[in-house]
Amino acid sequence: MLNTELTAAELAQLHDSYRHLHRTPELSMQEHGTAEFIETRLGELGIEHFRCGGTGVVGILRNGDGPVVGFRADTDGLPIREDTGADYASTATGTLPDGTVVPVMHGCGHDTHVAAALAAAALLVRQPERWRGTVVWVFQPGEETAAGAAAMVADGLWERAPRPTVVLGQHVFPAAPAGSIALATGPAMAMADALRITVHGRQSHGSQPQDSIDPIVLGAHMVARLQTIVSRELSPQAPAVVTCGTFHAGLKENIIPAEAEFTLNIRTLGTDVRDHVLGAITRIVNAEADASGAPHPTIEEIYRFPQLTNDERESEEVRAALERELGGGNVLRIPPAMGSEDFGTLPDSIGVPGVYWFFGGFAADVAEPPVNHSPYFLPDLEPTLSTGVRAAVAAIGHYLAAGK
Q1: Which of 17, 31, 126, 167 could lock 70 by a disulfide, CB 3.0 to 4.6 Å apart?
Q2: Section 374-385 average pLDDT
Q3: What is the pLDDT of residue 175?
Q4: What is the 3-state secondary structure (H, E, C) of the chain?
Q5: Which residues sit opposite 244 in a β-bridge?
Q6: How far apart are CA 60 and CA 70, in angstroms?
């Protein structure tokens, strides 16, 4: 079996890597400095590597004949202003596609994923006598926008790297206590769709509303009515979420604008529910426009995440390996999460199984730990990071350990 215990020097490097990554986040598909940091570390470990998908990095660790395992860690940050108060808090900024400069934070914990994967790679390099085969380390950009996995596949990931028989991945998450793992078998994370809806009205002076079609009032009715899809059109046993995340309109208080724009995020489990929700959105916004005598709105897709499904047989194999490493009571069974991931694109693109789990980030006695995408999201340094390393090594070792 592979030894998962870090030396004092390796633990210090794990913490230093994490702090550096946390302090220097970058937006999706703009992870240039992060990619260079990963390349430097892989080079120090003697692991061959190449760029893929723009700012993605692929490391190939070979150790004789044996199976090939893929392991993915995502690298991008979020447009959030950090408010954790940590001495290594981010003060970085980035530029959105529309040119807006925004603060950037690792508000979803991808810094922990990268740091843990690099430390896991170091452990495998240190003990070649304990395993045989090849690990393909996939440091993937652009998870937050569902662009990164597809970009790496399109850039020939599985033509340029050995094809794995299984792809593994993990994510820090407050739903499990630090030091533990949460793993779903079968459907694990929801599909996601993001839409931009532009409401078309008629501009006029604020004192002459009779000459306008007010897109703000119209859009507000749309947003309110859209909430009835989940509450009144779907079975309570059919999980779905419809969220309006942004609403923008107007430039001055005494001008009724010509347009309003809002964005939606939709999470569903199952294609039938997804199709119903997307169809209902179109029906509702068009009907509200008709009721106001306005043109039908413009509906644009921003992105789409596939459903993430854990292979049933392999997820039980990985669960058993994690239980051996961490203890059965520290590997929890959970239902599907309504969050979304593009991880599934990597195994699905070559028809191999994937297994994806969560590792806890906060002590069990924290009543309300900050959630992912919060400006306060700062997982406990330990045992969070060491658990991520141990889980990665144990799962990889299940497939590659010599003499198992």
Answers
A1: 167
A2: 97
A3: 80
A4: CCCCCCCHHHHHHHHHHHHHHHHCCCCCCCCHHHHHHHHHHHHHCCCEEEEECCCEEEEEEEECCCCEEEEEEECCCECCCCCCCCCCCCCCEEECCCCCEEECECCCCHHHHHHHHHHHHHHHHHCHHHECEEEEEEEECCCCCCCHHHHHHHCCHHHHCCCCCEEEEEEEEEEEEECCEEECCEEEECEEEEEEEEEECECEECCCHHHCECHHHHHHHHHHHHCHHHHHHCCCCCCEEEEEEEEEECCCCCEECCEEEEEEEEEECCHHHHHHHHHHHHHHHHHHHHHCCCCCCEEEEEEEECCEEECHHHHHHHHHHHHHHHCHHHEEECCCECCCCCCCHHHHCCCCCEEEEEEEEECCCCCCCCCCCCCCCCCCCCCHHHHHHHHHHHHHHHHHECCC
A5: 264
A6: 9
pLDDT in tens, 303-347: 999 999 999 999 999 999 999 999 999 999 999 999 999 999 999
pLDDT tops 70 at residue 403: no
Rounded Cα distance between 103 and 85, Å, is 15
Q: Which two tokens stand for residue 6?
A: 């870090």
- 25, exposed or middle or buried, with CB in 10 Å at 0-12, 13-18, 19+? buried
Average pLDDT value for the chain: 97
Phi, psi (degrees; rounded to nearest 5) at 253: -70, -20
Return the percentage of the chain with pLDDT > 90, whole number.
Answer: 97
The backbone torsions φ and ψ at residue 363, rounded to the nearest 5 degrees and listed phi first, read -60, 150
Q: Which residue type, as a one-letter code, is found at position 192? A: A
Query: Encoding tokens for residue 71?
Result: 């392991």
Residue 349 has pLDDT above 70, yes or no: yes
Closest Cα to residue 89, out of 104, 78, 79? Answer: 104
Task: Read off the pLDDT band of 241 (50, 70, 90).
Answer: very high
Is the pLDDT confidence value at 404 over 70?
A: no
Q: Average pLDDT, stretch 267-278?
A: 96
